[in-house]
Design goal:
Number of strands: 0
Order of helices and strands: HHHHHHHHHHHHHHHHHH
Number of helices: 18
Helix content: over 70%
Low-confidence stretches: none
Strand content: under 5%
Bound molecules: phenylalanine
Largest sheet: none
Mean pLDDT: 93
Length: 457
Amino acid sequence: MALGGESSRHGMWSSRWMFILAAAGSAVGLGNIWRFPFIAGDNGGGAFILVYLLCIFLIGIPIMMAEVLMGREVRKSPINSLRKLVAISKASPAWVLIGWMGVAAGFFILSFYAVIAGWAMDYVLVTAQGTFVGVTSEGASAAFDSFLQSPLQLIFWQTLFMALTVWIVARGVSGGLELAIRVLMPLLFLLLLVMLGYALTTGSFGEAASFMFRFDWERMGVDAVLAAMGQAFFTLSLGMGAIMAYGAYVPNNASVPGTVTIIALLDTVVAIAAGLVIFSIVFANGLEPGQGPGLMFITLPLAFGQMPMGTLFGTVFFLLVSFAALTSAISLLEPAIAFLVEEYNAVRSRVAISLGVITWILGLGTVFSFNLWADVHLLGERTFFDLLDFVTNNLMLPLGGLLIGLFVGWVLPRKLLVEQLEMPALWLNLWLLLVRFVAPLGVLAVFVYTLYRAAMG
Ligand code: PHE
């Protein structure tokens, strides 16, 4: 079996580095800057972060390699790549369900992702107007709360963000996005460094670091292990086919293990940096780390309100967050679009618009979760948004990852893996151990543990 075809009908990344940037663009997003700090805060910091890091390295990296090699072998959308791989391995067609579940997860995630990204876009404007100069913590909280009370404002930004996402995916992934990612991703890193510099001046950097790295199991809540694993999948864009879809466009001369390691490290560094910045601000201002989805939107304005040139830095920062969200959003839609284009020879732009509209409608549920439906609770005190977030990140993505691990580890012919990965035998066997046993059993153990704790009350 030779390496998969030379190129994909959807286009190809122009180089190995372009793939790294694109996949890092998918991985680095709201998950790192918005979700990681608030989930870590909700779950007490240290021990949560340790479990999260273990999941990244023992489950995330091996599964990411699995996704990339699956995509690159066939060079089609995840559903069709699975179909072909099932045929090659003479396995049960039921495995293709991984692809369908991934498409569904992508929709669900994008529906709320666009709403939150909309908040970041609103904050670009609000920050630029100098609203936060000298703001107090009460002022920053009040501003955010009153913003959430206006469904129309939220819908306006959600719509704008969805339109941008659809517009970019419609043009094809390599058609302009490449350039933007090349310029904006490094800028995001640079600005995070500036923010880290600021965090050091707050006087609470040490407290933030100890909150994040003191592995105090006492503070670890019952659901924290599940949340940590879910966050690991979410932040690396794993378990739903985004990375598999991007893998289909990876040139044959790129090394899968090498590129994947770089991507995962970049993602982890951004999340940890964002956490240090946000928790420094939290502790310096006597705020609560566990205040949920609003954490970033209350802490950062405070910082920008106090630092020199805060209005400028703040505006640019929220702009970069919005952009990071955009480069993730397109990867949430790509698996479904590539599939429809292959299946029905459909025009990419038309498919993109239709799927965008469906996602937008579903997203209204998230918009209303913060105002009109704020008191509607589903399954244990959860708003519609909380439920969607829980089901996708804590259940669907880990389940997708578990199945991908089993499929690649137990079903695909070893020869194919050897050719795709080109690793020394020792490393290959280590990776096999991780995808065959550690990743699936790890996910399973966390599921069982959570169910058990839930049943025990
Ligand atoms: N990884 C992205 C983030 O951290 C979100 C994402 C999840 C993107 C799943 C694609 C697939 O923001």
